[in-house]
Amino acid sequence: MHVKLKDTSWIELYIFGITGRRFSPEQLRLMEGLWIYTSYPDARIWNNRIAALAGSARSTGTLGVAAALAVSEASIYGHGIGIRTIDFLMRLRRHVDSGGSMEEYCRRELAECRRIGGYGRPLTSADERLAPILSLARELRLADGSYLRLAFAAEQVLLACRTRLYLNYGGVAAALAADMGFSPREYYLFMFPTFLAGMLPCFIDAAEQPEGALFPLPCNMICYEGKAKRPWRRC
User: Fold this and answer.
1) Fewest CB atoms within 10 A around its CB: which of 3, 126, 127, 196?
2) Which residues, 6+ apart, have CB-to-CB distance to 141 below 8 Å?
3) Structural domain of residue 137, as residue ranges?
4) Residues 6 or more apart from 111 whose CB is under 8 A from it?
5) Is residue 68 part of a domain?
6) Per the domain annotation, does 50 fall within a domain?
7) Radius of gyration, alpha carbons of the chain
8) For 159-185, how does the pLDDT look when each residue is reduced to its tens digit (9 = 90+)?
9) Does a structural domain hold residue 184?
10) pLDDT for the residue numbered 80
């Protein structure tokens, strides 16, 4: 650690611990960009909200951020979908390379799973993160990989099927990672700190406000239809 890895950057050490491989400075810069372009310091985002609520409740930063990172594994729009996205691209690649139809495979995936990881967004079809990520990848000459081309080709197939499933951040990130040689598990572990840089500002901002002031909800706004008020019973 203090001899052979003493000159590595933090991200290089982190990736080396996951993969056991060394990457070029350009690849490391792209990996860092994948983290940066989605680390929004916005407490309205589901995982950042946990960090902010921890600050508002006067919990510790470690507990708040650890909880926020834990809920980042959301199966629909968090890390849970990421591993399925890179797995889908790898399966699609094998199918196409063996002479199979991309359209047939995408239709079957939709029929069996009802969604395809890396495609579609719940509120808007456009993903504002793609332009800066792809711009950085082109600048670093890492935008011509076979998986990235495959991801965009699959997008055209899905759009032709009238699904409105546009490629999103998760699809581009997974494709770029696959082009850099990541396995599904390596990609999943690499993406662990993805939202981290946006969590700390949310925690700090909430901790500097009056305690309990974040997202205040008066009792008269809650429509409760459960059991009536009841006393605690000692065992």
Assistant:
1) 3
2) 26
3) 25-207
4) none
5) yes
6) yes
7) 21
8) 888 888 899 999 999 999 999 999 999
9) yes
10) 84
